[in-house]
Design brief:
Radius of gyration: 17 Å
Shape: globular
Oligomer: single chain
Structural class: mainly alpha
Length: 189
């Protein structure tokens, strides 16, 4: 994770409830957030990310259900068009009907023009999975999402003077807010 030590220092010193609230924007499992808060301070950003991964690896089924229930499908917005969004909406409805939760996929590293194609391909290919296989894939995608969101959260804390102003790491890149993250190609639907 590229971040100066200031963001991590701020994260390490946030009041517990504030840190927990911020972490819940990264992953919707209260157990995950509390575990990360309880193990502070972290010596470096990589230690924080490793702890976040470990906490997801240790999810009980209820933790995964809780985290997945709080997920929302975010659509790529750059250069996308309504036909693609319609197709994605239909595929997502079929996915939610089959598996009972929002489709989760980490698109970090994909440009805005590739994200919609990856999202559509991912949801279509995973619709054929059996529920247990999909649960494992969703669990790993959730881990990857939480990791990226956590990195953005720590970077956002580096740029803030007031911790409570930290942005939601799930917020789209250009949401109109001057302080929004610039490395996320998603928009909420």
């Amino acid at each position: 994770m590229q971040s100066s030590p200031h963001g991590l220092t701020r994260f390490n010193t946030l009041p517990a409830l504030e840190a927990e609230r911020a972490l819940l924007t990264c992953c919707g499992s209260l157990h995950w957030a509390r575990r990360l808060v309880a193990h502070r301070p972290y010596p470096d950003p990589d230690a924080l990310l490793a702890a976040a991964d470990e906490a997801v690896y240790d999810f009980a089924p209820a933790d995964l259900d809780e985290a997945l229930s709080r997920e929302t499908l975010y659509l790529p917005w750059h250069g996308s068009y309504s036909v693609a969004h319609t197709a994605l909406g239909a595929a997502h409805s079929a996915y939610e009907s089959r598996f009972g939760h929002a489709f989760v996929i980490c698109l970090d590293g994909y440009g805005p023009h590739e994200a919609l194609d990856q999202l559509l391909a991912g949801i279509r290919s995973r619709l054929g999975n059996d529920p247990e296989e999909e649960r494992v894939l969703s669990w790993d995608e959730l881990r990857r999402l939480a990791r990226g969101r956590l990195a953005r959260l720590v970077r956002s804390l580096d740029a803030r003077t007031e911790p409570q102003e930290a942005i939601d790491p799930q917020e789209p890149a250009d949401s109109g807010r001057p302080d929004s993250a610039s490395d996320s190609p998603y928009v909420a639907v």
